[in-house]
Predict the structure.
Amino acid sequence: MPGGLDKHSWNLTPSEAIRLQEQIRNRVIERPLNRPIRLVAGVDAALSADKDKIVAAAVLLRTDKPWLPDKPTGIGQSLTILEQQYAWADLSFPYIPGLLSFREAPAVLQALAKLRHQPDLVILDAQGQAHPRRAGLASHVGVVSGLPCVGCAKSRLTGHHTACGIEKGCCVDLLDKDGQLIGRVLRTRRAVKPVYVSVGHLVSLEQAAHAILAMTTSYRLPEPTRLAHSLAAKLRLHPPG
């Protein structure tokens, strides 16, 4: 994988983790991808049934044809599962809102590293810049791995927005308390709860929203993270050892 933030210790206090998030925020690059997308990885993590381990699942999908994430023609892709990988990590960081990436990122990075093919884009069931310190899991993983990452979360962590239209594809801006743009609220199915899309790393917000729509089929969640969520949910019931 391409290099990003130098590997850091995971043995951190909450205060040290917050300081590291400030470094991550400053290293996030928001810019349009300028190459076609063919391989898209979905990633999700889950707590083991005994609540002492985290499992992360990475599902890599291949599209039927390369597409540019800023082109609406990318919508309606035919997707094929190319490979699936997973990784377990001991749970060593406490549950603290805003610092969940320090619980999940070790396993997520290991699962991504196991992929035999490098993804052109990674979609995580997580926040990116739509985070109190602009450094959610999608940004953390993107900066450390150097991979283009998008956060697509099922719920809002921070920010405010106006009402979103009920038709598929309707969207509104997600703003922080100072009115700064931090994400997009996107309807992926008609009259179904929207998802919260934000930049993780090395992609623009407009492209991130197009990518989520392109990867969404018959469900609310984009296919890569939907499949990763399903795999992680099965694995969590059978931790190693």
Residues 87 and 111 are 5 Å apart (CA to CA). Residues 14-27 form the longest helix (14 residues).
